[in-house]
Each structure stands twice: as C-alpha cells, then as structure tokens.
Amino acid sequence: MTDKPTTTDQSAPVTELLDEPIEKARHPFMEAWDMFRRNQAALVALIILVLIIIAAIIGPSLYGRDPFEMVWAPFTPPGQNPDFILGTDYLGRDLLAMIISGARVSIIIGLAAAFVSVFIGVTIGALAGYYRGWVEEALMRFTEFFQVLPTLLFSMVIVALFGASLPMITFAIGIVSWTAVARITRAEFLRIRELEYVTASRASGARDFKLIFGVILPNALPPIIVQSALMVGSAILFEAGLSFLGLTDPNVVSWGQIIGSNRTYFLDASFTVTLPGVAIFVTILCISLVGDGLNDALNPKLRSR
Amino acid sequence: MSEQPLLSVENLTVRFAMNRRGLFSPATHLYAVDDVSFHVNRGETLAIVGESGSGKTTAALAAARLVTAYEGRVVLDGEDVLPLEGEELRQMRQKVQFIFQDPYSSLNPRQRAEEIVRDPLQSLTDTPAAEQQEITERLFAQVGLRPEQRRLFPHQFSGGQRQRIGIARALATQPELVICDEPVSALDVAVQAQILNLLSALQEEFGLTYLFISHDLGVVQHMCDSVAVMYMGKIVEHADRKSLFNNPLHPYTAALLSAVPSVDKTLREKSKRILIPGDPPDPTQKQVGCRFASRCPVAQDQCRLSEPPLTEIAPNHRVACHLVDEKAISPL
Questions:
Q1: What is the CATH number of the domain that holds A161?
Q2: Do A11 and B149 touch (CB under 8 A)?
Q3: pTM attached to this predicted model
Q4: What is the domain range of residue A117?
Q5: Which of B100, B151, B155 is opposite residue A196, by nearest beta carbon?
Q6: How does pLDDT run across B224-255, given as a tens digit for each residue?
Q7: Which of A43, A118, B42, B159 has its CA 20 to 30 A from that of A134?
Q8: How is A112-165 classified by DSSP, letter by letter?
Q9: Is A148 on the interface with B (CB under 8 A)?
Q10: Can you say how many angstroms the Cα of residue B22 is from the centroid of all Cα atoms in its chain?
C-alpha cells in the first residue's frame, strides 16, 4: 500500500457542521441505571439487599457471638432476654448469631451457584447459538437432557454421593439450574448474530472468539443479567431446601439448616423456624424486585412505560 | 481499458437451502444470485440496481466473502478470493470494506464511536495503538464529525451521523474497494445528499473504487460510471451510465427509469410511464424462459420458452432480452 494516496495529508472536513452543545458520552448501562432509579420498589429492595450483604460480611465479627455456642436456655422466645434479641433455638444457641452467620453462607452459595450456572449456561448457549448446525443440535439435546431431570432429586444424589461440602453443594445447585440461561443465551445469539453490526464486525476481520465474546455476548447480556439475578434467589432457596433435608455442611450455619434442625419443635417454638424463614423471604423478595427492576431498565421495549 | 479491473466477478452463484418438506424429499435451493458476472474498474463506481429480493445485496455480500458463494470466481486485484481462508482471507478483508444499509443496526450499540472506527485497524492490521488513534482522529475529521463526538455511543448520534461513522469505519484500513449497500436508503432526503456528496468527495480524495448498491436510479445517476440492473438473481442489463440512462434496452430497465420522478417539466411530459403489473414470480420455482416474461409488456412466445443470454449488443452494453438486436433499439 505505497502507491495509494495516503491519509496523512490533513484534509478539511467535507461538510461544515453547526456548533452544537457538547454532548457527554453516556454508556448504555448508565441509561439503564437512570431507568432503574425511577423504580422505587426496586431501589428500596436494592438498598435492603446491600444492607443484608454488608451484615453478612461484617456482621459475624461485629456481633461476635459464636453461632454454635450454647449460650442460654433452649427455646427462649424473642424479646424475653435483651442479650438474645431473637431468642435461642432447641440447643440454646443464639438465633441472631445463627441468622447473621447463615446470611454469609446462604449468600455465598447463592452467588457461587448462580455463577456456576451462568458460566455453564452462557458457554453452551453461546456456542449453540453462534455455530448453529450440528453443534447447536447436540448442545440443545444435552440441555434438554438436564431440563427433564428432576432437579432436587438430582442435586440430592450429587450431594449424597460426593459429600455435603460447600463447594459440592454449590456445584450441585449450579449443575441443575443452568438450562434456562443456556436457552436464553442461545435465543439472544440467534437474534443478534443476524444483525448488521455483527456482519460489519466480520467484515472488519473479527475472529470467532471476538465475535462471540466481544460483540454478541455484550449485547446479549441484559436478559442474562436479569436471569442470573433471579438465579441467585432461587439458588438460596434451593440451598435452604437441601439443608432442610439435612444435606448440608454440618460445620457451617445456613438459613435452611436452622429451619431444618428446628423443624421438629415447630409447634412449640415456631419462632425458631419462622425467623430464619423471614430472612430467606426478605432476601429472595429483594432479589426478585431488583431482578424485576433490572428487567425494566435493561429492556428497551419497556422503557416507555 | 488496458488495465485489468480491480474487481471482476465471474459466473457468481449464491444459493440458499430451503426447508425440506419432509425428511426424504430432496433438498431444494433458492438461487438468490444466479450466474452473475460484472467487473469494476479501478477508481470507478459500478452501481447494481434492482428491486427488493433481486439478489443485489447478496451478490455484494458474496463478493466481500460475507456470504458463502456456491459457484463462480471473484477476482480482486488479480486474485480469486473465494477459496481464501484464515490469514489470507483477513488480508483480503483489508482491501474490501462494506458500508451497510441501515446505520441503526450496523453499529454495535455497546461500542463508542471511536472504538467502532478503530475496530478494523485492530482486527486486521498491526498498526501501533498511537497510530491507530491518529488514524481514527483523522477519519473523524474527514467524514465531518467533531473530535469531541469520538467518545459518544451510537444511540447519541442521528442517522446521518451514524452513517458517517460507518463510512469512517469502512475507510480505516485504506481499502481499495468499498461496497456501499444502499448507504442512503435509510436516511431522509436532505441527509442523503450530504452522504452522497461525502462519498464522492472521499472517492476523489483516496481514489476509491465503489460497488454501489441501490434500488433508486435517481441516486445512482449521480454516483456511478456504469450500472448493472438485476432482476431475480440475474443481470438483465449492464452498461455504462450514459448508454443506460439515454438508451435503456431491457424493458425492465426502461420501466425502472420511467419510475424516477423528474423535476424538469418538459422531460416529464416527454417520458411515458411504463407500468409493470404484478410481483416477481416465486423465486423458489425454477423458471423456464425469461424471468421477466410474466410482467413484461412486450413479452412474446419465445420469451416464455427460452432464457435470453446476456449478450453484448454494443461496446460496454450488455443486455439479456430476445427482442433486442444489434441495432440496439428498445423493444418498447
């Protein structure tokens, strides 16, 4: 490319433009945040959720009481002893300490399991949606195989076989819940790969890897983000279900485990079951509301509402 | 004409597989581009015109290796590009760039304007980052965008500005051939003129070769050196601008030309409006005879029986019609 006219000579603009006020660059996600802020329910839910997460991170060291230690008479109802605001469980352990320390485990499992399922789902959905043909055919049959498995039973089998450690529980939850993400990702890829800017990127010489992860995936993110937010909630629920059935790491406290271990005394001391239940309920509700707000904010078709 | 053309397309065929009716029924294909040949000389503009579904965009996409061709040769700068793979294909992409029809869907909404323009440089060349930045800045000035607009996202631009970004992107690797796929059809008329002027000015400045696709002969009139008219995957007439606009020989070309509105009153009264009834026939059915016969006002029996070949009836004037002979008189 030597004989071509080079672009080094400074040429004047071909058309004069009017002086307009300088516009600030606005990332699409910033606009989504503006939209999200207008949804009050979602905003309140987000604030509560942040508080719960902060409590989960610094709460145990701040409150300082060991959740496994038997500190007082069993079944002390809430409010009776100012030292134990939420009362004690069937072994006389402080319920507040248990709920605070359970928050950490529940949220970590929720996030990690959602991450596992999003990772598997996005990879499989992206490959299926991008390559089409037999790749899609094979990956989607594989996805359907996991879809028809009874999820709770399958994860119980995994935990029962490989032991109830936190990583294994996380994996067991992740492995049964990625199918929805895979289908959403594939659907988005099928739509976006036909758009002109993908062709334009191919004309600009982008390789498959860049097209998948640099061009299509960022544009497919909004529904995936919403789905993963909801996934965190359902993973927390799932973990609660597993530990209610006793399939949990006995060395850590989680919300489901508190409910599970106290369930026999439900009629005599219902607060031991309802209080961690309320914690689960509030957290899941907040996650759902935030997910809903994200959906409205990230889905341009709903923007006009 | 001593120089060989920059792009020459020979017997290009692009077909798409149709959904099979049953598991064991034979695969059927839709021939979107059927045995099409044309060439573009260096520094010139060839316009391909035709109605929706005539295969003009598909032909261009196949020439740029963005759609897989079924048969034929696409010779760019003396090299057949259809068998290229991997690194060679990426080398070829530097020379051929594409300007897309719809400026709203052809820019990645998650990229800043400067990232969009820099993309081809990053993917196709080893230009150092500083130089990439320099080139990007220069391109922004050349297509008439302000420097502070570089960091904006596509949704913050108007349609015309977006198309300028698309043009800047296409020019980033200093291509030799720029394929403009209806670059102005999504814009309103005032902006259309701006963009067309910009394209002409850039062609002059960089010695670009354009393959210009359009359905609007009025737009083409100002841009091109020669015109190929496509109908249902075939070229029906291919001539330099003057002979095509002054003496359209194929009835379809004549009808298209008569549909271009004219401001000149005497010209308007002189030209008669040629109406072609109906829609193009079903492209999935193999045609016998001339493809235009079902809508042609002067079709004869032989038109329905055998397909007319594309023959050169005058220098640089090829037409596919049974009713046109060496005298080059329009059958209408």
A1: 1.10.3720.10
A2: no
A3: 0.81
A4: 43-302
A5: B100
A6: 889 999 988 889 999 988 888 888 888 888 88
A7: A118
A8: HHHHHHHHHHHHHHHHHHHH-HHHHHHHHHHHHHHHHS-HHHHHHHHHHHH---
A9: no
A10: 36
In a domain, A6, yes or no: no
Burial grade of A203 (CB within 10 A; 0-12, 13-18, 19 or more): buried
User: Residue A18 corresponds to which tokens in the numbers above?
Assistant: 């009017």
* Cross-strand partners of B45: B210
Evaluate whether residue A139 is within a structural domain.
yes
Question: How distant is the Cα of B251 from the closest Cα of chain A, in angstroms?
Answer: 34
Question: Which A positions 28-57 lie with beta carbon below 8 A of chain B?
Answer: 28
**C-beta separation of A182 from B95 below 8 A:** no
Residue A37, in any domain of the structure: no
Backbone dihedral region of B316: left (phi > 0), alpha (psi from -120 to 50 degrees) or beta? left
Separation CA B306–CA B322 (nearest Å): 9
Residue B41, phi then psi, degrees to nearest 5: -80, 150
Task: Please indicate whether, in this complex, the C-beta atoms of A5 and B201 are within 8 angstroms of each other.
Answer: no
Amino acid of residue A304 = S
In terms of Cβ atoms closer than 10 Å to its own Cβ (0-12, 13-18, 19+), residue B131 is: exposed
In DSSP terms, which residues pair with B30 in a beta bridge? B16
Does residue A16 belong to any structural domain of this protein? Answer: no
The two beta strands, B226-231 and B45-49, are parallel
Closest listed residue to residue B119, CA positions, set B165, B164, B186:
B165
Q: What is the pLDDT along chain A (305 residues), one digit of tens a residue?
A: 344 444 444 444 545 555 555 667 777 777 788 888 888 888 999 999 999 888 888 877 777 777 777 777 777 777 777 777 777 887 778 888 888 888 888 888 889 999 999 999 999 999 999 998 889 999 999 999 999 989 889 998 998 898 888 889 899 999 999 999 999 999 999 999 988 899 999 888 888 899 999 899 988 888 888 888 888 888 888 888 888 888 888 788 888 888 888 888 888 888 888 888 898 899 989 988 888 888 888 765 554 44
User: Residue B187 in 3-state DSSP?
Assistant: coil
Structure tokens at B318: 């090829």
Number of domains in chain A: 1
